[in-house]
Here is the input.
Amino acid sequence: MYAVISDIHGNLEALEAVLRDVPDEVETVYCLGDIIGYGASPNECCDLVREAGMPSISGNHDLAVTDLSTNLAWFNPIAAAAVEWTREQLTEENARFLRGLSRMMQKEGALFVHGSVRDPDEYIINTASASENLAILREQYPNVRVCFFGHTHVKAVAPSPNGPATGSRSLDLGEGGPYLVNPGSVGQPRDGDTFASYVVAEDAREGTRVAYRFVEYDVEKAQARIRAAGLPGMLADRLAHGR
Ligand code: ZN
Here is the structure.
């Protein structure tokens, strides 16, 4: 059994709660990137990911913070302010760790990307982009049954297994596939949920079983530390709304 987490975004309270929630049977926790950016604890989150030995890829925020040539005009003003604040905080050791991450990783039957299969910065936000990426998976990764992606901070499964994915926390992704699965965000959900989410997955002969796990954490503490750090207040406010 393995777990997949994504988009921690420097939210230590959420990351710690998620790691406490991970079932004992889980052998490896895979991280889909955006470990930092927005939240008040970039170094603590990097330390935890490294110390836990999680295989991780990088997200656009990890790269924007650690690559000083990134043009911040691509980011909205609040995100850009967060990138600049995080640059000042991040230790050289953690910057080196983030820079060293690859943009994609694979295990038997599973692929892990930040944004999409064809572009780590693409947002898979509708059925059109999902089917285009599913076609690429079929063609270029015939052995991949499930591709985990993040970046949108929105829980999603495509194509919907036996009806709408939102109806059930546990999904049997049968022999067919491939499937695209977004575990949602640990540190900054944008689908209206205020709790952290991630998935646990198990490979079975009949296919892959994926179960969502929802984790309450101390949102107010994370908010208080964002405000105390002098980060834009909106980054604290949004945690209470999941937007
Ligand atoms: Zn993100």
